[in-house]
Predict the 3D structure of the following.
Amino acid sequence: MSTLSRPPVTGTVEITTLDITIAQGALRGVRERGVETWRGIPYAAPPVGALRFRAPQPPLPWRGVRDARQFGAVSPQSREGNFIGAAKNAPMSEDCLRLNVVRPARPARPARTSGDERGAGAPTSPGSPTSPGADGHTPPAADARPAPPAALTGHSERALLPVMVFIHGGAYSVGSSAEVPRNGDTLAREANIVYVSVNYRLGALGFLDFTAYSTAERMIENNLGLKDCVAALEWVQANIRMFGGDPDRVTLFGESAGGNAVTTLMTVPRASGLFARAIAQSSPTNAVYPPELTQAWAEQFVELLSERVSNDSVENTSAEDAGEMLVAASWRDLIRATDALTMSAPDDDPGTIALCPVIDGDFLPERPLDAFKAGRAHPVPLIIGTNDREGALFAGRLDILATTPKRIRAIFAKTKKKARKAIKAEYPGLPAKRPAHDFGGDYAFWYPTVKVAERHSRFAPVYFYRFDIAPRLVRLAGFDATHGLELFALFDRMGGTFGRTMTMLGGRRAFVRAGARMRRYWGAFAYSGDPNGVGVVVGARGGVEGELSVRDTGGEKQAAESAPVAFAGWPRYDEETRQTLIIDAHDRVEHDPRASRRLAWQAFVPHV
């Protein structure tokens, strides 16, 4: 149940408050700029005091109407480590388990069906290609192109809308859902979906494995950041109907560490049924490690924390005292010790990321890549891909990848000479700066992503992409289409200072239009599990300029269309053809792009 109240208009922007009631209590959101938003909604109890290092607990109810017009506090994080954290004035607190909901203004009203409160658009089972669509009709089989979302047709749906839940990146150490305040607004409006963004515990509070210091009296659990994400998805299942969202059409998507969360949660048993589709952007899919390594990092962290909070003690790294120190330390001391650990880890353990999920045999039973290979991942449709030059971003304080001679040597030492020779041929000049950054980016992001795509494609639909477009200034700076650049396109961030600056030498129009096409692909996928929409025109009449060509990188080429045409379709990925959508000024499909590099990596790291 919801009610509207209209305060005075501020400037030229009409702002309307919006009250809605969920199980925990009443929320007051706001309608402005074509969307309705509710922010800072608790999806779990505050993980403070005795709940620090414990799995998230159910959210607490409240009395009266809770103001949901502002973002909640962000997870404690540093601005002095590898990554620049939250804004200096951003409130931080361990009480950070909040999420935000954005929906198009005046959305379709949730419809009821006999026997329950499902909307007409609720499929009979997550990801089912023959379930009823958003208009109540049964879509075609998965190989056919389904009806596009309402935003693409102009048709006003009277049904529950698909839901897209975004997990932010930041190496599991920084970031928040408030980092870009209007991040999902354009996506919600254009794709006609309900957008949810999530805060979760970061750093030592969420992604270090301290279970060796757990006792019966003082329990310490692991994988807490991932468990937070599961709790948020459970909240969505329980509450999203009240916001006009369809709990049976939830798409989980994320970028970088958020992409790692997506591919990892696809193999977490407890996450089964909580999402019907998944999108993983630039996921370091293999950055998930066994307890032998994660507990070694925990030991290093405890020593670093001890030096900071009680260096005169000779006992506080023992199992009993370390646990007490971890629970009692201030979060500021925790993040400073985290800084020290993450600064040293890239050289101590090259090619790894210390803040990570742990294969604990319970919540996360096995390495995700092994689960994908065996078909034990949740069989949901998947969009997955990387950017053209992922590693180019990771320089200076961001230099955490295997990009230095010492780190590359450590990785080379683990493989055979013949494989080393083949991989060096793919990166001429290694370890010079450019080839080293490409080597490190491919090792962390591209090649493991290829393995997830090929393995999951045996059991469920997979759509693979590579994001290639970059404005001229970004290319001149040597970054090209690097890690995170696609977020500026997808989320329509080009109106900000950085967005305007990076297009000051040209390329803005093509980049903005590439983002509009991405939102069409992502939106269509959220509706049906297929990014293709019937009759979607990639051209000026459709508001998105581009052309589709198909190229076989093995040598034989098919003729490219020379003018905008009706989009022929983003083909599924499989191990035989490896058809990949290249998102550029003009989108195209390539067969097995960088095939020789893929084969060289296959011999170089056969365990991946």
Notes: The CA atoms of residues 349 and 407 lie 8 Å apart.
